[in-house]
Write a structure and sequence with these properties.
The protein is mainly alpha-helical. It has 13 helices and no strands.
Length: 357
């Protein structure tokens, strides 16, 4: 069975990709007003056109299929179904429902924050939490910060056609590449990651500029909690790194592959708080928007994020699979990459500020 796994996974990816294309096509065909909230709202959005925000529904359906298929295509896949995996399933479901509710009724920020905290608590009490401190109190605190931060980061990054989809696709790509290089084909998370990539690839067909549909909060909240969970299992806790990784190595693995959502959210939050406005109210002040203000088209901005995401993927794969011993100079190398990328995007985001309003 193990030697046939590459073929099985290949068939699963193709089937999930085709399903994603078909289900999103059907959602587009039958959607009239569901998920379309732009008209008559005071929320500031980049797109001037109302479009269905339904992409997240296909994400969640394929995620459920992936979980179900684990017991059929992964050797000893039934071992995956324990308290920890059910906790991830529960947290992801709560995140999906939060997004679905928000797309329908535009929930208040405090409700979203409280529900995101619930997602983090579900992960913690079922055994999925960051383990880098001796004190579990600080581990739990960091886990909550990570979960809430990532759910908001992916949500905030979904501000232009294709951006959040592309960044999430490459994050999953880095994780799955590591599993393949380590010959960890029996890892149940490989199925979930592969399904996520297929779902995103199918959705990108409709979401790339000029888009026909958005993922909405249904998609971004789902992706946020899913990526947060996979980040904890594969990177924060060192399970996706070939050596017994020290804390700094794990930290830079996370910082490198999640660089774009972290930088965009940090930049926007700093700018908004500096002018006395809430970081959670939408605006045209993201790093993507300022690249557009420089004269780039939305499609060109999308390709820039493809390139940056690819660089982050390559650096992360090298870190997690080809560094036998973590040395001090590695901190400067990976820290330098993050700082340079942050400074460039932060400077760009502070240009042409008058166009944000």
């Amino acid at each position: 069975m193990t030697e046939n796994l590459p073929l099985v996974y290949g068939a699963f990816f193709i089937a999930a990709l085709v399903f994603s294309l078909i289900i999103n096509r059907f959602l587009l065909k039958f959607a009239k007003t569901l998920g379309i909230r732009n008209s008559g709202e005071t929320i500031i959005r980049w797109s001037a056109t109302s479009k269905p925000s339904l992409g997240g529904i296909s994400f969640y359906i394929i995620f459920l299929f992936s979980v179900i298929l684990i017991s059929f295509i992964v050797p000893d896949g039934t071992d995956f179904f324990n308290l920890q995996s059910f906790g991830i399933l529960g947290a992801v479901t709560v995140g999906f429902l939060l997004g679905l509710f928000d797309d329908a009724w535009n929930t208040r920020p405090w409700i979203k924050f409280f529900t995101q905290m619930i997602c983090g608590v579900i992960l913690i009490v079922t055994g999925t939490y960051i383990q880098i401190f001796e004190s579990n109190f600080f581990n739990y605190l960091l886990t909550l910060f990570w979960v809430v931060g990532m759910m908001n980061s992916i949500n905030m990054l979904d501000n232009m056609d294709g951006i959040s989809s592309v960044v999430s696709f490459f994050i999953l790509g880095a994780l799955i590449t590591g599993m393949i290089l380590r010959d960890d084909l029996a890892n149940p998370f490989l199925v979930i990651t592969l399904g996520g990539m297929a779902a995103l690839a199918g959705f990108l067909y409709y979401n790339w500029n000029p888009s026909k549909m958005f993922m909405g909060d249904t998609g971004s909240m789902f992706l946020g909690i899913l990526l947060a969970s996979l980040g904890i299992n594969c990177l924060w806790n060192g399970n996706g790194i070939t050596i017994d990784a020290p804390v700094m190595m794990r930290f830079f693995a996370v910082a490198t592959i999640f660089a774009l959502p972290i930088i965009d959210t940090t930049t926007v939050s700093i700018k908004r708080m500096a002018r006395g406005s809430s970081p959670f109210v939408g605006g045209k002040d993201h790093t993507t928007h300022h690249l557009s203000y420089l004269g780039l088209t939305d499609g060109q901005v999308g390709w820039i994020f493809v390139g940056l995401s690819l660089i982050s993927l390559i650096l992360t794969v090298i870190l997690t699979n080809f560094i036998p011993v973590w040395k001090i100079w590695h901190n400067f190398l990976y820290g330098g990459y993050f700082v340079v990328l942050f400074v460039i995007l932060f400077v760009i985001a502070n240009m042409n500020s008058e166009k944000e309003l």
